[in-house]
Amino acid sequence: MLKQTQLKKKFNTKDYSIDASAFKIASWYFVSTLFFRSGIIPFSTILVAILKMYGAKIGKDVRVKPYTNIKYPWKLIVGDHTWIGEHCWIENLAMVTLGSNVCLSQGSMLLTGNHDYKKVSFDLITQPIIIEDGVWIGAKAMVCPGIHAASHAILSVSSVATKNMDAYSIYQGNPAVKVRDRVIE
Asked: What whole-number distance in Å separates Cα of residue 165 and Cα of residue 145?
């Protein structure tokens, strides 16, 4: 068994890059804390403008609610008419792409990073997330690294997507499984 000090020396982030200067990272931390996570600014237009200033690519009529946590806006693409609800957590160590008409309900989490627990170096593993048009991620649901949610899929409340989600399908549970087709009338 390795001691804690030995593990610290072996921790490996491989070739991971934040793709930003130290100044940009530090300034985003303070701006994010003040304007996003505090809820002091409840207006989507202002929050979207700030995200764009930090490199996010955002479409028309996007709503970002207060108390959101977005790790790195320069690794975020959002289509038109998308909703990011209160207390959403986008831990985008890799790219996160949200299509148009996507709904991230309150408290949902998108996680692009994980660790290889089988290695003593606890290697960091990052994979992008793609959420296609019309997808609804339910309240307190979690999307794991590398997931591709196809057009109009639904991940229900408190469910955990550990595998790709098919188009027009409804997923539920932990791990989430398809429970039925999504029929839009």
From this structure: 13
> pLDDT of 102-139, one tens digit each?
999 999 999 999 998 888 888 899 999 999 999 999 99
Number of domains in the chain: 1
From residue 74, alpha-carbon distances to 38, 78, 96, 115, 119 in Å are: 21, 11, 10, 22, 30
Can you give the pTM of this predicted structure? 0.92
Measure the CA dihedral 74/76/82/83, to 10°. -80
Rounded Cα–Cα distance for residues 142 and 78 (Å): 18
Domain with residue 45: its CATH number is 2.160.10.10
Spatial neighbors of 159 by CB under 8 A, at least 6 apart, are 138, 141, 142, 171, 172, 173, 174, 176
Q: CA-CA distances (angstroms) from residue 95 to 19, 56, 153?
A: 11, 10, 20
DSSP β-bridge partners for residue 69: 89
